[in-house]
Amino acid sequence: MVVFYSRKGHTRAYAEELAALRKDKTFELREKKERSGFLGLVGGCFQSITKKEAEVADLPDLRKVRELFICSPIWASGIAPAVRYFINHAELAGVTVNFLLTCAGIDKQDVYKKSAFDALSATGAKAGEAYVFACPMKSAPDTEIAGSHIKRVILGVD
Ligand SMILES: Cc1cc2nc3c(=O)[nH]c(=O)nc-3n(C[C@H](O)[C@H](O)[C@H](O)COP(=O)(O)O)c2cc1C
Q1: What CATH number belongs to 2-155?
Q2: Is 77 close to ligand 1, i.e. is its CB under 6 Å away?
Q3: Which residues contact 69 (CB under 8 A, 6 or more apart)?
């Protein structure tokens, strides 16, 4: 299963392409409380830095899932608060968890990967791989580019 949170569509494009290429299902995490405007974003950065969660409306049924991709945008160098909520509340024990992270620039990708794997530490999940892709905020989400990146970097095909 491919679980994702996306505010502006970049992470969604990667998640949907990844699921299509792997013939997998997607599940979108939706924040319960609407996040709008500048204050919503500042609040999101604060939540990310302080490792706070943002409650989501629904969680997926993971009873038959052994391997998972979690796709998150990077906010203030960490995973999005909705994704942290999912990690803290889903039953991940024994599940292999891979991350696909999108961000403005990949120069700090090791920090972003660490933030993601650190969030898993108390869950009993098995740490898989993490992949980081640059999606500058001013660019429109592009499924074709996402698909070609995933093929090359994750699936190892041209
Ligand atoms: C509140 C906020 C904080 C962000 N912080 C970072 C950051 O620390 N590092 C970075 O490279 N990109 C950062 N970004 C850029 C996003 O991670 C990037 O544009 C991402 O692809 C957006 O995904 P989405 O369209 O699925 O919401 C931030 C974006 C937002 C909205």
Answers
A1: 3.40.50.360
A2: yes
A3: 1, 2, 3, 15, 18, 24, 97, 98, 99, 100
Cα(135) to centroid of ligand 1, in Å?
Answer: 8
State the Cα–Cα distance between residues 77 and 53, nearest whole angstrom: 15
pLDDT in tens, 16-56: 999 999 999 999 999 999 998 899 999 999 999 999 999 99
Going along the chain, which residue ranges are E strands?
Answer: 2-4, 26-28, 67-75, 78-79, 96-103, 126-134
Q: Closest ligand 1 atom, CA of 78? A: 8
Each domain of the chain, given as residue ranges in start order, spans 2-155
Ligand 1 pocket test: pick from 11, 75, 133 the residue with the most ligand atoms within 8 Å of its Cβ: 75
Can you read off the two tokens belonging to residue 128?
């898989």
In terms of pTM, does the model score above 0.90? yes
Q: Is 10 in the pocket of ligand 1 (CB under 6 A)?
A: yes
